[in-house]
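@channel sequence for tomorrow's demo:
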Amino acid sequence: MKNSTLTRVLALLFANMPLVLLLIAIYAIACGVATFIESAQGSLVARASVYGTWWFEMLHIWLLLSLIGCFLTSKSWQRKKYASLALHFSFILIIFGAGVTRYAGFEGTMPIKNEQSSNRIYSSEPYLIIQAFDKNTQQFQGVEIEMIAPARKYYILNLFDEEFLLKFGALEHKESEFGMPYTSLELEILESKQKLSLSDKLFGVGKEKWEDATKLEIIQSQLGDIPEQIHTEIGEKVFIIGWGSKVIALPFKIYLDKFVLDRYPGSQMPSSYASFVKVEDSANNTQKEAVIFMNNVLDYGGYRFFQSSYFPDESGTILSVNNDPGKLPTYIGYALLMLSCIWLLFDKNSRFSALARFVKSKSSLACASALLCLSLLPQNAYAQATQAPQNAQNTESTQAQQAPQDSNHQFTQKPTQEEVEQFIELVKKNSKAFSEDFGKILMQDFDGRIKPLDTIAADYIHKMTGKDHFLGLSNTQLFLAILVTPEYFKEVKLLKSKSPELRELLGNDPKKAYIAPIDAYLPDGTYILANYVERANQKPLKEQNTFDKDVIEFNEKLYVFGLIYSTKALRVLPDTKEDVQDWHDFDSVIIKAMMQKDDATYARVYKIAESISRGFSLGVTQNNWDLAYKGLELLQEYQKEHGSDLLISPGRIKAEIWLNKTRPFERLTFPYLLFGFGLFIVALIAILRNKAVSKKLNLAFYALIALCFVLHSAGLVIRWYVSGHAPWSNAYESMLYIAWAAALSGVVFFRKSSLALCSASFLAGITLFVANLGDMNPQIGNLVPVLKSYWLNIHVSVITASYGFLGLCFVLGIITLVLFTLRSPKRKNIEDSILSLSAINEMSMLLGLFLLTAGNFLGAIWANESWGRYWGWDPKETWALISIGVYAIILHLRFCGFKNMPLIFASASVLGFFSVLMTYFGVNYFLVGMHSYAQGEAASVPWYIYAMVACVVALIALAVFKNKNTPLELKL
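C-alpha cells (generated this afternoon):
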C-alpha cells in the first residue's frame, strides 16, 4: 500500500504532463521577467533575482526529473516511438551536461600585455573574498562566497576555530560624485559569543543580537581585475574583504608575443584580431606556439583559451579561459537532438508522419518525401547592429551646424527660382548617361567598405528626400548636381520632415513636407536647431515625442547634405602610401598636398577635380561631356595606380547597381500580398460554396507566387555576391530571409493547400513590407570579427528560417479562427478545411520548433567555440529559449485532455507567435543586450502592437463563443 502511494506521488510530481507544462510555463515567465529586470537594472540584479537563485536551480532539477519520469512512463519503446524517445533523451543529456558545466566547470579571463607572460585567471563570476589575519598566531585564513546571487542572507564563517556571523544587506545601484555608476552591498560581521542553534545556522540570528556587529559597505570591483579591498578589525582578527573576480593560478604560463588588430580599410571598425602566444610549461618542459583569434582556440592542459577582447590602447590581449567537464555530454545531447529532429520527419510512427498522411488524404499536401529538402537547405537569421553612414549622432549634430561654412563653394550671387528650375531641367535632360557612368566609380564609405558611388548616392538621396527620383532626377544625377553646383540646391526644398511644428519653426508652410537646407540657418549663419537637437538627444528614447524625433532625423539629413555639399562624401582617392588603405575626398588630398608642398599630387588631383567639375557644368549647359569623361578617365587611372588591391570586379559593381536600381525586395512586397490575398479570397469563396478551387486557377496563383519566390531567391544570391558574406548579418537582411523562408514553406512544402500557400505568400509580403518601412538600414555593411565564421551560415540561417514557419502558423491560426467564426450546420464543408488547416498548422509548427531548437543550440555551440561560453542569459538567446518553451507547451496540449483541440491549437498558435515577435523585434529594439539593435535605450512599444493584440483577442473570443457547444476533434 505504501509503495503504491509513493508511486502515485512520484508519478504526480515527476510524470504528470499537465504539471510539466505548468513548470515549463513558470520557467518561461521567470526568464521573461529576468530579461526586463536586466534591461532596467543590470545583469547582476537579474542574476540575484532569478538566474542565480536557489529556486531557479531547483526548477531546473525538477524539469530534469520530470523529463526522466515522462521518459520512463511514456512507453515510447513499446509503441516503437524511437525518434521521439531519442529527442526527449537528448534534452536530458543537455540539461545534465549544463549542470556539470555549472557546478564543476570554470570560466574566466586572462589579460596579457605584449611581450609579457601570465598564469593568472580572473573569474567571470563575482565572489566575496574574505581573508582573516590573526594577530596572535600571525596566520591567514580565507573564505570565498559566490555572489551570482547569494543563496542565503546569513552565513557562518569558521575561522581560527571560531564562528563569525556574516549578514548581507540589499544590493544598491548608486552613482559617484562624477556620475559613474557602481554597485554596493552592505555587510554586517559579528563574532559569535555562544554556540549557535540549528535554527540560527539555517535562518540567522535575531535582530537584537546584531547591535554590536561591524557594519561595512563594499563596492563591486570590475570583473577581470584584482578586486579592491576594505579592512576592518574584530577583536584580534583583521578582516580583508574584496568583491569581484577571484584569482586562480594555472600550472603553466601564457606568453604573448604580439597582439595584432586589423581594421577595415579607411575606418576604425575592427576586421579581425589575433594573439600570437606561446605556452610555457616548465613542469612538463613544454613550449608550444599558437595563434588565437575569433573562432580559433587554443587547447592545453584541460583549459581552452579564446580570443575575447583587447586593451583599449591595443597594447595587449584579453583571453577568455574555461575548463568545462560538461562539454562531452552536452555535445552528445546536441548531436542527438539534431539527428532525432530529422528522424522524426521520416519516422512512420511519428506524429509528423501521421499528420502528413491525414493531410495527404485530404489532397492538401505534396508527398512527404519532399520534406527531405528541409534538412539539406542552408537557411538563416539574426542580427547585429546596423551601420549608419554617419560616424555618430554627436558628430552629425556638430557637422550639421557647420555645413554651410565647411563648404569650399562660395558664391556672391544667389540664382533665382527660375534659374534653379531651368538648371534642374537641363540636368534631367542632358546628364543621364554621364551620371550612370559616374555611378560606377568606386568610393570608400565611412565604415571602410569599397562600393560604387551609385550606392552612396542612393543611400544619401533617399535619406534626405525619403524617395527615389526626387525632382525627376536619378539619385546619382541629384548627388552630382548638389556636389558640383551646390548654389542651386541650398534653397531647394529637398529635406523631408514629419512634424508641422518643425516646419513652422523653420519658417515653412506646416502642411508641406519638404524644407530647404538654408531654412535651418539665420542670415548670420547660426544653426536654428542647435539647442533643440541637444535637448532631444538628452531625452531618453521613451520620452522623445514626434517633434524631438523629427528634429534628430532632420539634423541627420542636414548632415548628409553637408557631406555632399562640402565634397566630404566623395572619398574616391586612395592614399598614395602602400601601407595605408584609407581613401580621401578631393579637398583633403589637395590641402594635404599644399601643406606638404607636393606639387605633383596637387596638380594631378586638382586636374581631376577641375575636369569633373567644369566638365559637368559644360555637359549640363552645352551637352558637351568630353571634359567630364576625361576627368573620369583620370580618376580611374588614379584609383588603379594607388588602390588596385581594394578595387572590386566590374561584375560586382554591376550587380550592386542592379540592386540599387531595381530594389527587388521592395518591389516584391506588393505581388506577394496581392497574390496571397487574391488566392485567399478565391479559396474562401470556394469553401463557402462547398466547391473545390479550380485547378487551373490554383495553378496560376501557384506559378505567380513561385515566380516571386524565384526572384526573391535571386535577389538574395546577388546580395550575397555583392557583400561577400551571407545576406543575414543584420536586421534588414534577416527580415529578407524570414520572408524567403515563409515563401519557401508555401511553394515547396504546402503547395497543394490553397490556404497554406496564400498564407505563406501573405506572410512573405508582410515581412518585406516591415523590412522596408524605413526603421531598418538596408545598406550592405562589413562584418564584425565574431560574425566572420561558418557558424553564421549555420546558426543564424536555421534559427531565422524557423521564424518563417512559425509565422506561417500564426497566419494559419488566424485563418482557422476566421473559419470557426463562419462555421455552421449549413456549412459542413468548413469543418474539413478547419481540420486540414489544423494538421498543416501543426506540421509547420513542428518544423518551426525543430529549426528554432536546433538553431538555438547551434548558437550555443558557436558561442562556446568563439568565446568559451554556451550560455550567457543574453535577452536574445533567453527569449529564443522562451519561444521553444511556448511552442513545446502548445504541441503537448493535446495530452491534457482538452476538448475542441483544433480551436485551442489555432488560438495557441496565434498567441504563441507573440513570443517570436518578442524574440526578434522586442529584444532587438525594446531591450538592451549583446544581440540588440537598440542604441543603449529601449524603445517604446508602438500603438499598433496593442491594436494587433486587441484584434487577436477579439477574434479568439468570437471563435470560442460561437463554438463552445460544438467541439471539433482532429482524429488521425
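heads up for whoever presents: The first helix runs from residue 2 to 14.
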